[in-house]
């Protein structure tokens, strides 16, 4: 039996995406409290997300969402990273409120700064795994906005997306400006 790289590409994409999710899960978290949600999108779900990005591109300041929608149609997988809205009870004031209770009372939708920091560290760990495996990727805020709109990570208020590609040219680099 002979298997070519083309035959194995989708399996490789899925395997690297799974390793990325593991890296995100095991990344350091403030106080050791984990508020992350992770998901792997493939196939038609990527198309559905791309469609939503294009639809959302009509909104003010969102013209680039259409470009990003076209970008992810070239991805073999998309990994979503989200954080749930919760406080850590540190009363640190980093979010701009003097206490966690004050934040929850005055702005319950405002994120805990530590959760946002944890999200960034987790995504950084994940994309380093992609780089270690020579997988093309790009962190995209727009994917997270569309994923949140579609409720692909229920309960998450902040979501980032990372599309993956294993082709001869990185579709997420040298993108045409709008």
Overview of the molecule:
The structure is a single chain. The chain has 178 residues and is an alpha+beta fold. The protein has a domain at 5-85 and 123-165: NADH Oxidase. The protein has six helices and four strands, in the order H-E-H-H-E-H-H-E-H-E. It has a four-stranded antiparallel beta sheet, with helices on both faces. Helix 1 runs antiparallel to helix 5 (113-132) and helix 2 (44-56) packs antiparallel against helix 3 (64-72). The N and C termini lie far apart (47 Å).
Features:
178 residues; 6 helices; 4-stranded antiparallel sheet; NADH Oxidase; 15% strand; alpha+beta; globular
Rg over C-alpha atoms, rounded to the nearest angstrom: 17 Å
Strand order of the largest sheet: 1-2-4-3
Could you give the count of β-strands? 4
CATH class of one domain: Alpha Beta
CATH topology of one domain: NADH Oxidase
Compact summary:
The protein is α+β, with helices and mostly antiparallel strands and 178 residues long. It has 6 helices and 4 strands.
Secondary-structure topology with pairs:
Layout lengths: L4 H22 L9 E6 L2 H13 L7 H9 L4 E8 L15 H7 L6 H20 L3 E2 L3 H9 L6 E10 L13
Antiparallel strand pairs: 1-2, 2-4, 3-4
Helix pairs in contact: 1-5, 2-3, 2-6
């Amino acid at each position: 039996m002979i298997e070519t790289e083309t035959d194995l590409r989708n399996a490789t994409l899925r395997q690297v995406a799974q390793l990325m999710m593991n890296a995100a899960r095991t990344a350091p978290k403030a106080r050791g409290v984990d508020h992350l949600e992770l998901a792997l999108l493939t196939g038609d779900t990527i198309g559905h997300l791309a469609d939503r990005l294009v639809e959302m591109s009509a909104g003010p300041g969102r013209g680039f969402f259409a470009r990003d929608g076209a970008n992810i149609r070239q991805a073999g997988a998309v990994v979503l990273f989200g954080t749930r809205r919760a406080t850590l009870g540190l009363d640190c004031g980093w979010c701009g409120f003097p206490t966690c209770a004050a934040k929850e009372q005055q702005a319950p939708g405002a994120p805990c700064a530590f959760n946002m920091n944890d999200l960034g560290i987790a995504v950084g760990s994940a994309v380093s795994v992609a780089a270690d495996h020579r997988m093309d990727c790009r962190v995209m805020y727009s994917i997270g906005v569309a994923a949140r709109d579609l409720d692909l990570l229920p309960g998450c208020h902040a979501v980032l997306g990372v599309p993956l590609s294993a082709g001869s040219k990185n579709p997420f680099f040298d993108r045409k400006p709008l």
